[in-house]
Amino acid sequence: MTGALPGVAPMAVPPGAFLVVGTLLFAIGLAGALLKRNALLIFLSIELMMNAVNLLFLTYARMRGDLAGQMIVFFVIAVAAAEAAVGLAIFVALFRAHRTVDVDKIALLKW
Amino acid sequence: MSPTLAVALEGAAKIAFVWGVVLGAVLPNLIWVERRMAGLIQDRPGPNRVGPFGLFQAIADILKMFMKEDVVPMYADRLLHTLAPLILLVPAMTTFAVIPFGSTIRLFGRDIPLVIADVNIGILYVFALTSVGIYGLVLAGWASNNKYALLGGLRSSAQVISYELAMGIAAISVFLAAGSLRLTKVVEYQASGTFLGFLPLWNCFPQALGCVIFVVSAFAETNRLPFDLPEAEAELVAGYHTEYSAFRFGMFFMAEYLNLIAASAMMATLYFGGWSLPLLHLTGLLGGLVSVAVFAAKTGFFIFLFVWVRWTLPRFRFDQLMNLGWKVFLPLSLLNLIWTGVLVLAKVI
Amino acid sequence: MPALNGQLVVFGFASFLALAFALLMVVQKTPVRSVLSLVVTFFGLSVLAILLAAPFIAALQIFVYAGAILVLFLFVIMLLNLKEEAADKDDRPVQRTLGLLVALALGGLLAGATLRAPVPPRGAPTGTPIPLPDEIPALGRLLFSDYLLAFEVLSLLLLVAAVGALLLSKRRFE
Questions:
Q1: CA distance C101 to chain B (A)
Q2: CA nearest C149 in A: which residue?
Q3: What is the ipTM of this complex?
Q4: Based on CB atoms within 10 Å of each CB, which residue in B28, B265, B278, C56 is the most buried?
Q5: Which residues neighbour C101 within 8 Å (Cβ) at sequence distance 6 or greater?
């Protein structure tokens, strides 16, 4: 795969490199989401995963020469902001009820 | 010489010039001007011992900053405590990169625009840097392990975030009228015509409301009176920089003044025509030099305004401050945006 | 191997920064330091976005993501006064190893799949080309023409989120 489009200079950095970086960041975020116990840090790792996907979208937008990729990233960033606000409010309410944000200890629905 | 080397040298020369002027000439004199003007307004002499008219007071202050003992509180997070002033200082110093300080001059056969980096995202760069500066405030408060510092830090950052909104929307109206996010294009737009036939096309005339909002929000963004409750002595000891001494305090001090200078330069660029004069068309080497002088004069006027207001007005209470930012300025800036849109559609500006 | 040029150097530095601080974020004990490591990661990602001809998204990443969302995270951490993750007796070694293996396996699988996937050429009728020196006016035009509904719904979503967050975190005085 190349970054060559008709009429546009080819990418100086091979696009495969961007894809690898994005995928690695996604994997790191996934590791964080699986291994952490603090609910806020899990949420943070999920945000990292979303940003890794943003990077992938931008790479494909550049490779295809299509602005739609950048538009999608714009919307993802805005929706992530809304999600972070609501999610953090939920964590604050949770903390007030249980005095902890440790996901192992918040186990009221377990049998 | 190769074009890359020429571009690099050009950039380095511009950076050296801007930083040399700002850090070497404007900053020390600003310290002196502030304290003498404070004395003038408060009917007392101000510093007049060190050098003629106390002009070397800044050197004395800087020496004191270096010599004092650097105290770090015992249970403070050392890394964050050290990092916080840097996080505040670096955006303050790099904001100058996108502000055009003169027209284009022609030297050695090349057209050199007098701006360090004419990026196509212009103003977004400045706003992004302001957002990064918030971390410095919050971390300074948190890392000091001191409840007053924490309160001061949180209040400071809440204030900056709130006024960032109104300031941003007021600035959007400017870019709506100019048609581009680049600051060079904004200045060119303001130099390009007249408003209602006799006034220059400076954005302060058609968008007076936006101009007022931007100027007042700039006071809030730089934590200057009347918005300096987070660092008021009587309220919060010294707010987020309570536990800082010697050089680190000097860095906060420097960051505040640099922010002030950058904010004045932004006001001059966005609303008062930047380096352009109303009737003259500044070209060539002489025109370039005149444009730099014009820009310096306008920025100087706004710095004077900052200092004047500080020693004249009392400060706002925190809830009054937040009320003003959210309930008054935000709707008014949206109104200004709509007004500018109407003017642009009607081809008046 | 591509020739050594400025962009490659910048790419190397930015991706190293992003990956290193992402790893640090996962490894750090204190929540505050995790958030700060993520801020540096976002700076690296922002530089990568500039390399990918998306300067507006790069500025947005710093301005919105690193400058507002992560500050919100930091405020909540300070509000709840979360200290280090206490080393617990039940350290769950089996779960840790399994989690790490799953992440590594998935990462490898995804990397292989993305590198092998063919990128379809731009030929779709609605593909909008990136006018490289001046993407921002084109983005603006797209936002208000093709994506207008999404834009309006997004503003409604943000309003709902703000109201919801306010309601959820209100202290009930019983």
A1: 33
A2: A75
A3: 0.89
A4: B265
A5: none
